[in-house]
Amino acid sequence: MICLAGGILLAQETPTERQAARDVLLKMSEMERALDVRTIVERLTVSNPQRDQTVARAKELMDKELLAMADDITRHPEIGFEETRSVGILTDYLKQHGFEVTMGVANLKTAFIARYKGNHGAPNVGVILEYDALRGTSRPFHGDQHSAQGPVGIAAAVAIAELLEKTHMPGSVTVFGTPGEEMMPPNAKTEMFKAGVFNGVDLLVRSHSTSQTTRPAPGFGTCCLNIDGVKYIFTGAPAHQMTPWAGRNALEAVIHLFNNIDAMRSTIRPEARIQGVITEGGAAPNVVPDRAAADFYIRYPDEVYLAQVREDVDNAAKAAALATGTKVKIDAYGQDRDGISVASLDELAFAYLKKYGAVKVQAEPGKPQGYEETGSVSSAIHGVGFSAATSNWANHTYEMEQDALTDVGHSGFQVDAQAMTALLYDYLTHPDYRGQVKREFEGIQKLFAEYKASLEKVYAKPAVPDPK
User: Are residues 296 and 355 in the same domain?
Assistant: First the structure.
């Protein structure tokens, strides 16, 4: 645990963050030392016949039915918000195992809630399922192995539901079908959160593919940086290309936007990522394009400096419109923000991943990251993500999709399902453990506010005088 607490000081992604928020990170280290997570993990992971039987049931479901379901979904990829076939397979299985399904929650047609009919009050545990494929240039593909996240989560949910039914112990399990993880707009989990879909849930869990079995540090962060999703839509006036002066070229405005962004890269911090594609650029080469659009993800490790980068990109778009005589609409359609990771959950999950045979284990704690990508959920409800190594290739590749159908994928999915089931069992059956998780989560929430206030002080913009 000393290693874990000391690593917190190095966990934030940039030297600026680590230095500016040093006092906050020291407070977090002290809190983690006082919690003594290692001792509680050692106590919970000793042999427990009832837990082991529940875990064995999850493994049995994977072996007999759910790995085949994952393979089937892998072979029939559907992009975000169009996952009707995949959702049908998942919800049919849940109904067969005693869950009552409500479709179309939060006005998202492929989002759902599945509540076990034998639920017995608090504590309330929730399992997040994902099932959307990536948008490829030639076809949709499961390059993030979301095809297996549904079966993995269902194995754990059904095993826990059967435990509740058999023992009549207090507790409830609910499954949340969350579409379009790889897409904005809308940001499905955020929309579900705002609609109150997760209300009353004490703990959320999910799995996700990876090429290494990792161990997040406690704190605040995200897997893939804080993100603003923004579309820049330019309008001009059409004309014949032989008399282009009679029109205003919206495509030229988009090209200016990209050039303006390239020009500003030398004066923004190097950790920023500004990634865009042209989604509209005209319809015919002999007509001046009167409409063009570009879609951007603007990223930075923290949301404080991200606001400055976003302002700069917006200004680059306005300048492009001014230079070309066009007009621009700025459509800020979504965002992802830091979530919270909790050592009391992550360390227990990591111990179970190793116990059940995870490979390519990275022993040292990495950066903090919320258990889901939006931050809106993982900064408000404590939870944990399970990521046993499931591929020999990087995420978002066709090779990772193929690994979902082979032993490396199947073995990792089995590990995730067993580890998830074990942690859910411990959370449901140990009130003292639930109390520790809650205390740690609330402590990190308070420090997160201090952290952002510390960063506000160091991201001052240079003063630029008026020309004389």
Answer: no
Q: Are 123 and 202 in contact (CB under 8 A)?
A: yes
Q: What is the dihedral of CA 396, 397, 402, 407, to 10 degrees?
A: -70
Q: Chain-centre distance of CA 360, in angstroms? A: 22
Q: Phi/psi at 296 (nearest 5 deg)?
A: -125, 145
Q: Are 8 and 216 contacting, i.e. CB atoms less than 8 angstroms apart?
A: no
Residue 6: inside a domain:
yes
Low-confidence ranges of the chain (pLDDT < 50): 1-2
- The CATH number covering residue 298 comes to 3.30.70.360
Task: Look at the chain and report how many structural domains it folds into.
Answer: 2
How much is the pLDDT for 106? 98
Quick count: other Cβ atoms within 10 Å of Cβ 58?
Answer: 29
User: What CATH number does the domain containing 180 carry?
Assistant: 3.40.630.10
Distance (Å, whole) CA 457 – CA 169: 50
Closest alpha carbon to 355 in 429, 430, 421, 403? 421
Whether 207 and 245 map to the same domain: the answer is no
Rounded to an integer, what distance in angstroms lies between the CA atom of residue 217 and that of residue 314? Answer: 34
- The residue from 336, 355, 381 where one domain ends is 336
pLDDT per residue as tens digits for the range 416-429: 999 999 999 999 99
The domain of 153 spans 2-222+338-453
DSSP-based three-state secondary structure for 400: helix
DSSP 54: H
Place of tokens 């297996």: 148
pLDDT, tens digit, for every residue of 28-52? 999 999 999 999 999 999 999 999 9
Q: What is the pTM of this model?
A: 0.93
Quote the strand ranges of 244-376, DSSP E: 273-280, 291-300, 327-336, 339-341
- How far, in Å, are 171, 198, 200, 231, 382 from residue 126 at the CA level? 11, 8, 10, 33, 11
**316 CB neighbour count, 10 Å cutoff:** 20
> E strands within 137-263?
172-177, 203-207, 219-221, 226-235
> Could you give phi then psi for residue 290, rounded to 5 degrees?
-100, 0
